[in-house]
Task: inverse folding
């Protein structure tokens, strides 16, 4: 079918590798762009970010540093100055560069931009004579503006002028994605890296050693001790939580992200991989299920936004549940059931930033995803009389979006104020 090629391109666009949490990576990318055009040695760095970027970056580990937060990420991005690596911008740096980054981070100015953009990073660097400014906006790796002194070197509005045109998910319904994943030629589909290897690798790493809260490792230990069953449910929880433990701790392994989120990429893929291992699914069955899981998340995020006050793992786990239904041999109606079951169960879980404790939320959502899939495959679905669920799946997703945008409009601000007050109190206590 004609639209299959565009859906395949959409999949490639939204499923990309990322190293470390994508909010600090986005900040590092902005400073890298600015540093790449600054003629002299950096003397000062000023960074302004949206509340959502601040919230998701202040408590997460930065790979290969032993530090958390946006300051060290911004400083290292400037020192390394490799914007061509995009969300893998902090992939590699020397001990000398780390030391230089620490010095710059100590004097770095970090502010919160009060605008409406969920994704906004402004980096202003100076060498004493010149000023370089880079702005990331709308998407985690979208360079919106690049300036050197009074010269505008780049100004890119998505879809306008010479800027690359992003493929929109808005024109498609869930049925279109299902048809694509079940009917598209497998030879072309298997050429797309959907994270089967990368995400499984970081899960194994998280299971191998104590990292963060070690939620995944402890679940696996309980499986081995017979306290938990050795089944799809608990294996999926162990894999996904272990990968999140590792990633939030600053593990230097990339993951395959979805719509700019590494944790969402993990939440989509690893439950499906765990189910495929337990069901002895074929490589083709796994690839089709992964593709559908990714596209379900893309579909939901197109309605609710890339960043919100709701935990992003809810939509990702809905994708995982849908993929598991495919592995179980379920039809399209049962994939709808799985998504409705997830929304009906977990729609109220808030996002209070990226941090080590995310592995707990990931484990909870993964457990709900497996439950949603198994119930759906047996023909059981949340009633359309319940809450925000309706008979139509896209209307149900739209109801979720309305709940987020209208019902939770003050939630992000309240959460951020609590986090910033806590952070300020901790800084004051450390200086006593």
Result:
């Amino acid at each position: 079918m004609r639209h299959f090629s565009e859906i395949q391109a959409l999949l490639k666009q939204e499923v990309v590798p990322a190293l470390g949490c994508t909010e600090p990576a986005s900040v590092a990318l902005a400073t890298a762009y600015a540093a790449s055009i600054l003629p002299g040695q950096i003397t000062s760095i000023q960074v302004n970010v949206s509340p959502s970027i601040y919230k998701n970056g202040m408590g997460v580990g930065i790979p290969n540093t032993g530090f958390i937060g946006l300051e060290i990420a911004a400083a290292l991005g400037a020192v390394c100055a490799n914007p061509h690596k995009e969300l893998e911008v902090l992939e590699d740096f020397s001990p000398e560069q780390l030391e230089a980054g620490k010095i710059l981070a100590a004097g770095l100015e970090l502010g919160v931009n009060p605008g409406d953009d969920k994704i906004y990073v402004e980096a202003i660097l100076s060498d004493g004579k010149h000023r370089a400014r880079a702005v990331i906006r709308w998407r985690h790796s979208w360079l919106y503006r690049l300036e050197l002194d009074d010269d505008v070197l780049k100004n890119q509005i998505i879809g306008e002028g010479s800027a690359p045109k992003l493929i929109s998910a808005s024109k498609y319904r869930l049925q279109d994605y299902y048809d694509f994943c079940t009917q598209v030629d497998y030879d072309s589909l298997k050429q797309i890296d959907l994270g089967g290897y990368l995400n499984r690798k970081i899960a194994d790493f998280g299971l191998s050693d104590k990292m963060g809260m070690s939620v995944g490792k402890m679940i696996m230990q309980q499986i081995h001790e017979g306290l938990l069953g050795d089944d799809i449910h608990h294996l999926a929880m162990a894999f996904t939580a272990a990968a999140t433990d590792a990633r939030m701790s600053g593990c230097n392994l990339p993951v395959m992200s979805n719509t700019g989120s590494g944790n969402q990429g993990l939440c989509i893929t690893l439950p499906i991989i765990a189910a495929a291992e337990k069901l002895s699914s074929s490589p083709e069955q796994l690839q089709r299920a992964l593709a559908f899981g990714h596209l379900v998340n893309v579909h939901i995020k197109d309605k609710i936004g890339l960043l919100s006050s709701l935990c992003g793992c809810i939509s990702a786990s809905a994708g995982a549940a849908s993929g598991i239904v495919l592995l179980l041999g379920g039809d399209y109606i049962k994939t709808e059931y799985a998504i409705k079951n997830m929304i009906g169960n977990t729609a109220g879980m808030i996002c209070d930033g990226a941090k080590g404790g995310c592995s707990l939320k990931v484990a909870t959502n993964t457990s709900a995803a497996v439950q949603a899939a198994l119930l759906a495959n047996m023909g059981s679905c949340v009633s359309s009389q319940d809450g925000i669920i309706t008979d139509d799946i896209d209307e149900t997703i739209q109801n979720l979006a309305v709940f987020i945008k209208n019902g939770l409009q003050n939630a992000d601000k309240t959460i951020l104020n609590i986090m910033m007050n806590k952070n300020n109190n901790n800084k004051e206590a450390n200086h006593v």
